[in-house]
Structure formats: structure tokens, C-alpha cells
Amino acid sequence: MALLRALLRTARMATHTSRLAAGLPTDDEVLLDAPDERLGPALVAAGGGEYGPAAKLLATTRDAAEWESRDRYAIRLAAFARSRDGWLRAWQAAAPHDPDALLVRAELAVRRGWESPARAELLRQVAPLVTAASEADPRDPVPWRIALDHARGTNAGHTDFEQVWGEAVRRSPHHYGCHVAALQYLSAAWYGSHRECFDFAERAAQDALPGSLVRALPVRAAFAYLTEGGGPAVPRRRLDTAADLAIEVSAAYPSGDPWPAEVRNLLTFVLITLDRWQDALDQLREIGPYATSFPWDRISDDPLGQFLELRDGIRLEVASGLPLGTRGPSGHPQGGRGGRRASGDH
């Protein structure tokens, strides 16, 4: 019987795997951390030593109060400056009090501090840069997201954390980046617990507007639980509910949209861990060509290679569970929700 089951599994995989590639880009079409049409020209200019396009981009987000975009662009520009910072130094020299230059400088300084074995000490030394960024434009919540990352790295206590968190939400109550930073502080790996992490994420998701990425925050709590290990068990139904809510958020955006790409990649990781293979395959179609380093860099030094390998693995798992005679559109099985286990305890 075992041999028969193995032969049937192999036959199903051979029959369905290629058909399940429908709707997926080829491997050479998949991009890792691809910039959007606004950020791309700024990065190209920075590569040539010019800071003007980056300055204009961040000034535009500040003037229009596009805080979510501003946060993402500041992170990407600072990441670029880690290896090529001539353009940033030129910008600082030309406009030392520019709120946008101060923001990128603070983000870069905190990132570099995090990479050092002497993390807490170095981060304390760059505190004035974070303060300068927060004072440059009192409306801007993004420096307070940086301050939350800074607080976690300097071993700040809960009282200090609550003070920084209060400043962040006063400026933007539903800012996704600030919520992610707070969730990391409250995780079991740092200064909280799995229960605190889930409670915080679920309250934030409940308060957020439909379609807001904050509504996917519980799937980040699920990711933390599934990857950090230890501590009291979280019921399986809570993990599935977090994934279901993130699926709803994903569905609010067009397929192949780069904006929710990181949430979709994270959701796919969680669905794989929960053995929800059909749901994971559905998210691969939603992701399209936009792979993101996070979360795949948590398990591999080659996040793009890991993503592509898991795409193949997901298709194989779905194919092995389909009856030999199945004929569903785009590889979907006929009837029912594929891939989800019955809820129980994890």
C-alpha cells in the first residue's frame, strides 16, 4: 500500500505540476525588492552621486503627508547609502538642516548601529541624530518609527517605549511602519511575549481601515511565533485567523501590485508553515514578479533563490494532493478551499 500511495503521489505531481505554473511569472522575470516607478529614478541618480531626485521625492512625500511612502523610501535610500553614501554626504553638506536629509541620515545611523556587536552603545551615540530628525518636522511620524527601532536596540524599558509609541501614534494613528516596529519590541524575542504580540496586532488590525496593511499585522505576530519558538503554545485557530485576515488584505490590492508585496511574501511564508499549500499558491499568483528579501532572508543567504525554490515546492505539494482527473481553472481543484487544515491547536 505504501508503494501504491507513493506511485499515485508521483503520478499526480507529474500530471499537475506544470499546469499549476499558469499565472506565475517565469524565474527570470521575478525581481527582488524592485523599486517602484518613483523610487527607481532616485536610486539611479544616487548611484551617480546625485542627491537631487531623492531630495525631491522625500520632499514630495512630506508635503503631501504620504507617510507610508515616505517611510519606505527613507528605508530604501538609507539601505543604498550603506555602501554608497557619497550622494548623502553631499546632500548633508549642501542642506544640513533639511528634514529629508536628516531623516535618511538617522535611518542610516540606526541601521549601522544595529549591525555592530556593540549595538546598544553605538545606538545611544546616534540618539541626537534621531532627535534632530524628529524635530525637523513635528508632523512626521517616520522619525518616531526610527525612534522605536532605536529604543528596541538600546534596551529601553516599557515606560520609555510607551512614551515613544505615544509620540508616533499621535502623528499617525495607523502608520504601518510604526506598528511593525512596536510589534517587534513586544515580541517574545525582545521585550514582550507571544501573547502581547498577538494582542497588540489584533487590536491594531481591528481598529484599522479596510485594506490598510495594518490589518495584516496579526500575520506578522504569527510569523514571529512560528519562527522564534519557545513559550506557551498559540492555538492553531489564532494562526489561521491571522492568515485569513492577511488574505483579505491581499485581495484588496491588484495582483502584481508592488505595494503589498512584502505582506504577500510574508503571508506566503506563514501559509507554507501552516501547510496551507493551495492558499500559498494563490498568494504566489498575487505576488507576481515581486519577491521581497523579507522574510526569505531569515532562512537563507539567497532570498531570491529561496523564494524561487519554494515556488516549485508549493506547486509540487498542491499537485500531489490533486486527484489524477482534476481539471480546475489555473490549477485550482474543483470545489472547497484547498490547503487549509481544520483549525485546532498548533
Q: Your description of this structure?
A:
- The chain has helices at residues 2-16, 39-47, 52-63, 67-81, 86-94, 99-115, 119-125, 127-136, 142-153, 158-171, 176-185, 194-207, 217-228, 236-251, 261-273, 277-287, 293-296, 303-320, and strands spanning 31-32, 290-291.
- The protein is mainly alpha-helical.
- It has a domain at 190-346.
- The protein has a two-stranded parallel ribbon.
- Helix 1 (2-16) packs across helix 18 (303-320), helix 2 packs antiparallel against helix 3 and helix 14 (236-251) runs antiparallel to helix 15 (261-273).
- The longest helix is centred in the last third of the chain and has 18 residues, at 303-320.
Strand content: under 5%
Computed over alpha carbons, the radius of gyration is 22 Å
Taken in chain order, the helices and strands follow as: HEHHHHHHHHHHHHHHHEHH
End-to-end gap: 29 Å
Question: Total number of helical segments?
Answer: 18
Name the structural class: mainly alpha
Shape: globular
How are the strands of the biggest sheet laid out side by side? 1-2
Q: Level of helix content?
A: 55-70%
Mean pLDDT: 89
